[in-house]
Every structure is written in structure tokens, then in C-alpha cells.
Amino acid sequence: MNIFRLFGDLSHLAAIIILLLKIWKSRSCAGISGKSQILFAIVFTTRYLDLLTSFISLYNTSMKMIYIGCSYATVYLIYAKFRATYDGNHDSFRVEFLIVPVGGLAVLINHDFSLLEILWTFSIYLESVAILPQLFMISKTGEAETITTHYLFCQGLYRALYLINWIWRFYFEGFFDMIAIVAGVVQTILYCDFFYLYVTKVLKGKKLSLPA
Amino acid sequence: DDDDFRKDEL
């Protein structure tokens, strides 16, 4: 494993835990898109079905289980425990506009036409756009709490580090996976606008608010 | 093989 991959995983883990702790400590999920979190839970579930069929390493298995467990815990906090604080009116992105085309694409463009492979491909495509309901929510309300922006930054950083990891693996191991790379590039691009706002506002101590 | 490489990633 190279350093970019490791820090990518850790950044991903940080994002997930930041969000979970934010909701838990503030007893509120205001400003958080429950729809994005459901999409991430679907992403982890469909991608990590190989937990049942193959063992790679202790690191691999434990990280997968932590990601799945945390994502379901987050969904539980939003839709059950702190449901009263959930801002459903602003979380109005139509997820079927993501799931249906992504599902179709996974059936059409995959490495192998088998159930597990199509679900893996589906999870890769879905992950690349799963943050859209959250970004849509921020664009609707025009602002985000600082801790929410840290969450988004770690999510975007994770993707950017994975891209570097793939460049590394291509040069040193001759390995590349076109499906993962294209989806990863798309996903990273979605964060670019946010990265700009994060650097120019949040890191200078200002709250992230969009011009009206 | 390539499949193992891919499944190794999260």
C-alpha cells in the first residue's frame, strides 16, 4: 500500500467519524443531507458484498466493516434518533435521478456481466455522485456549518488522494481500472468548487455562506 | 491478478 492510498483511507475515515460525532455531540442533524447518507450506505453495502466471498487482509476487512457500520449509524441518527432535527424540506434532491441512470450505466458498462460485478460497478458510479444531495442542500440554504465543511473537505481529499494513488499504481505496478478512474475523476471534480470556497473562506475563519 | 488489486481498494 502506498502513502496516498493510506492517507486517502484515513481521510475517508475522518470524514465519516467527523459527521457521526458532529450529529452525536450536537444532538442534531440540521444541515446534513439524509439522502446523501442513505446513498453512501447503499454504496458501501453494494461494494463490500465481497466481504462474504473473499478475504484480502485484516486491514481491508476491518475498514470495510467500519465504513458500513458508521454509515448505517449515521442514517439511523438522522432518520430515527434525531429525526426531529432533520431538515427534510431543504433535502429535496430527487435521488431517483441519480440511482436510475447510475444503475443503467452499471448494467451497460462493467468489467463482467455478473451480479457481484454489476453491484460493485454500481457502487463506484453511485459514490461519484452521492454527495450531490448534500451540495444541493447547501446551495439551497446558502450556508453550511463549519464542521460540515470539514466533513466535505475530508471526503473530497480522500478522493483526490485516491487519484494520486492510482497514478502511483499505474507507474509502479502497471495497474489501472478505467471504471474506478473515470468515476473518481468525476467525483473529485464535483468537490472542486467546494474546495475553492473552503480555502478562501473556512480556512480564514469565516463561515461558508454562498452569495445570495 | 487485477481483480485482487481492485478488491484490495476501499
Automatic annotation (TrEMBL), chain A:
The keyword Disulfide bond does not apply. This is ER lumen protein-retaining receptor. Its main location: membrane. The keyword Protein transport applies. It is a multi-pass membrane protein. One of its GO terms (molecular function) is ER retention sequence binding. It comes from Parambassis ranga (Indian glassy fish). The chain crosses the membrane at residues 65-82, 94-113, 119-138, 150-168, 174-199. GO terms for cellular component: COPI-coated vesicle membrane; endoplasmic reticulum membrane; Golgi membrane. It comes from the Eukaryota. Pfam families: ER_lumen_recept. Belongs to the ERD2 family. GO terms for biological process: protein retention in ER lumen; protein transport; vesicle-mediated transport. It is found in: Cytoplasmic vesicle, COPI-coated vesicle membrane; Endoplasmic reticulum membrane; Golgi apparatus membrane. InterPro entries: ER_ret_rcpt. The lineage of its organism: Eukaryota, Metazoa, Chordata, Craniata, Vertebrata. Keywords: Cytoplasmic vesicle, Endoplasmic reticulum, ER-Golgi transport, Membrane, Protein transport, Receptor, Transmembrane, Transmembrane helix, Transport.
